[in-house]
Amino acid sequence: MLLPGADREALRVLSGLPQPFTPAQAGDALGTGRDVAVALLRHLDRLGLTERRQGENRLNREG
Question: Mean pLDDT by 10-residue block, N- to C-terminus, for the chain (63 residues)?
Fold first, then answer.
Protein backbone atom coordinates (compact mmCIF):
# COMPACT_ATOMS: atom_id res chain seq x y z
CA MET A 1 0.00 0.00 0.00
CA LEU A 2 1.30 3.44 -0.92
CA LEU A 3 0.31 6.77 0.50
CA PRO A 4 -1.19 9.25 -1.96
CA GLY A 5 1.62 10.88 -3.92
CA ALA A 6 4.22 8.26 -2.94
CA ASP A 7 4.68 7.18 -6.55
CA ARG A 8 5.41 10.77 -7.65
CA GLU A 9 7.81 11.25 -4.74
CA ALA A 10 9.59 8.03 -5.73
CA LEU A 11 9.89 9.35 -9.30
CA ARG A 12 11.44 12.55 -7.98
CA VAL A 13 14.07 10.55 -6.07
CA LEU A 14 14.69 8.12 -8.95
CA SER A 15 15.18 11.01 -11.39
CA GLY A 16 18.37 11.84 -9.48
CA LEU A 17 19.89 8.45 -10.29
CA PRO A 18 22.02 7.77 -13.36
CA GLN A 19 19.79 6.20 -16.01
CA PRO A 20 19.35 3.26 -16.22
CA PHE A 21 19.47 2.10 -12.60
CA THR A 22 19.18 -1.25 -10.87
CA PRO A 23 16.52 -2.19 -8.33
CA ALA A 24 19.24 -2.23 -5.67
CA GLN A 25 20.23 1.36 -6.54
CA ALA A 26 16.56 2.35 -6.39
CA GLY A 27 16.22 0.75 -2.98
CA ASP A 28 19.28 2.57 -1.69
CA ALA A 29 18.04 5.91 -3.02
CA LEU A 30 14.57 5.37 -1.56
CA GLY A 31 15.90 4.14 1.78
CA THR A 32 14.25 0.75 1.49
CA GLY A 33 15.15 -2.82 0.64
CA ARG A 34 15.50 -4.24 -2.84
CA ASP A 35 12.28 -6.28 -2.53
CA VAL A 36 10.19 -3.21 -1.71
CA ALA A 37 11.93 -1.28 -4.50
CA VAL A 38 11.11 -4.05 -7.00
CA ALA A 39 7.43 -3.97 -6.00
CA LEU A 40 7.38 -0.17 -6.35
CA LEU A 41 9.15 -0.32 -9.72
CA ARG A 42 6.63 -2.87 -10.98
CA HIS A 43 3.84 -0.50 -9.92
CA LEU A 44 5.53 2.40 -11.70
CA ASP A 45 6.00 0.17 -14.79
CA ARG A 46 2.26 -0.62 -14.83
CA LEU A 47 1.52 3.11 -14.69
CA GLY A 48 3.90 3.68 -17.63
CA LEU A 49 6.19 5.89 -15.53
CA THR A 50 9.22 3.60 -15.68
CA GLU A 51 10.29 0.78 -17.92
CA ARG A 52 12.41 -2.28 -17.31
CA ARG A 53 14.94 -3.58 -19.82
CA GLN A 54 17.51 -6.30 -19.29
CA GLY A 55 17.37 -6.11 -15.49
CA GLU A 56 17.66 -2.34 -15.33
CA ASN A 57 15.03 0.36 -15.00
CA ARG A 58 14.74 3.85 -16.35
CA LEU A 59 12.24 6.63 -16.11
CA ASN A 60 9.85 6.75 -19.00
CA ARG A 61 10.04 10.34 -20.20
CA GLU A 62 6.75 9.93 -22.02
CA GLY A 63 4.85 8.95 -18.84
Answer: 85 95 95 90 93 89 58
**What b-and-e string marks burial along 1-39, b requiring 16 or more CB atoms within 10 Å of the CB?**
eeeeeeeeebbeebeebeebbebebbbebbeeeeeebbe
Count of all residues that appear for the chain in the document: 63
Find all residues with CB under 8 Å of 63, minimum gap 6, and list them.
Answer: 47, 48, 49, 50
| Closest to 24 (Cα-Cα) out of 2, 41, 1 | 41
